[in-house]
Design brief:
Radius of gyration: 17 Å
Order of helices and strands: EEEHHH
Shape: elongated
Strand order of the largest sheet: 1-2-3
Structural class: alpha+beta
Amino acid sequence: MSEIIDFDPVSGISHWWDYDAQTDKATITTKQDVEPILDWTKGAANQGLTDGGIKESFWLYAKIPTIYQVKMHQAGIKLNDPSATKRIIQWVNEHAPHLKCTAKTHGGTKAKIYLPNATD
């Protein structure tokens, strides 16, 4: 049976510890409740809330929860690298389109992405 060993109420990330006596192996699992973020991104996309920013050279294309930032880092994408913008957008489009804050597709070559929670 898994036991919670840590919870961060700000990020919604929890760490769980599980021990299997038969195999004598312990596992630590990291989980994040991303449902509130997904609800917001879906609403933003449906209502076009972020579409106006493109006219001012800024477009909130996606909200990327911490747990997805880890997945992207594992895929070799450095979120704090300005030259990785195209790879970030491509990864979101291919692997996590539900994170998009717009129903529009990305076009153009001068995209900028602001990731306040991105870590190396």
